[in-house]
């Protein structure tokens, strides 16, 4: 296993075929929610598919994603983890700095829209530990707007263990097909296709 | 719905981004076996993911695949169905000429190796209707060897509702990443990744 580095990588070399692990979740149909991981080479080829399960509104998302990444045969090739927001399976919050440290991989959080903190706070009032969950959400740090080329809508990102400059480079190079990076677009298609019989909506 | 045509399409126009629906099955763990369908543009982009279930060693594969294809929102865009052999979920045999007629789409069967008919016959002796299943397998027609460019191993194909020439063109244009067409390579990764937690083996 690689040694744990706690600092941001300053000389992060980004190849066009950098291996990215994207994670999305399936719909909230029961108490258990499926997570789907895709291993992509940049924004082009799918190299592998992972899956796991978390508890709806539980507290196991960080641990489960960490285990899914580290137990994968692709772990040594993967250079960055990409998440679709920081809440999975309802309000099961991913602590991205903990995920970064435990996997020794940078984490990039991608969002289509700026998160609606008013609604998030209102929803978290129904949780006994809502304040603690909100702290983990806020700990994910500053939300940065990233413009994409051509007529694509901008997206929003957060990051852990990587510079903003490198994170933006990776997001741009992997956003080849739509206005969301391929690892997340495909993870979303798999997660919905497997649960509903046909993929739907947007990551 | 489109009119059913029973004849081979003689003027089958093949664009580089021709929509292909590839179907693979998951491992035999229980009585129900998951089918995964991928909708690809040629050998490049994944446009959608479908899923369904068949019975292990049952007789519903043709009907289930037919329904999965026709009920998809991608049905009107799909130009060809690609199968990984003609037996799914054990010995649940797909009648490719029936699938071709019912969906009005050409069917191409892809195999990595020439099927071992001796073993197939031996296994089918354990089925009361083994002779009937063997007839459906043989009805899939002549098996053709297809060479792929570079140092790739040749593959074997069968077809229904399409000329051999067009089938070979489609197989070649969609085999971009390995020595199996992308729709089948990715369907296999999804089917194994979802069941085992990580994709494995070859389609």
Strand order of the largest sheet of chain A: 3-2-1-4-7-9-8
Strand tally of chain A, please? 9
Q: What are the low-pLDDT stretches of chain A, counting only 5+ consecutive residues below 50?
A: 1-6
Helix content of chain A: 25-40%
Main interface pair?
A-B, 24 and 23 residues
Compact overview of the structure:
The first copy, chain A, has six helices and nine strands; from the N terminus they run E-E-E-H-E-E-E-H-E-H-H-E-E-H-H. Chain A has 203 residues and is α+β, with helices and mostly antiparallel strands.
Plain-language structure description:
The structure is a homodimer of 203-residue chains. Chain A is an alpha+beta fold and 203 residues long. Chain A is 31% helix and 26% strand. Chain A has helices at residues 61-71, 96-103, 117-124, 130-139, 164-174, 182-196, and strands at residues 19-25, 32-41, 45-55, 78-84, 87-88, 92-93, 107-111, 144-146, 155-160. A seven-stranded mixed sheet of chain A has the order 3-2-1-4-7-9-8, with helices on both faces. A two-stranded antiparallel sheet of chain A has the order 5-6. In chain A, strand 5 and strand 6 form a beta hairpin. In chain A, helix 3 (117-124) runs antiparallel to helix 4 (130-139). The longest helix of chain A has 15 residues, at 182-196. Residues 1-6 of chain A have low confidence and may be disordered. The interface between A and B is medium-sized, with 24 and 23 residues.
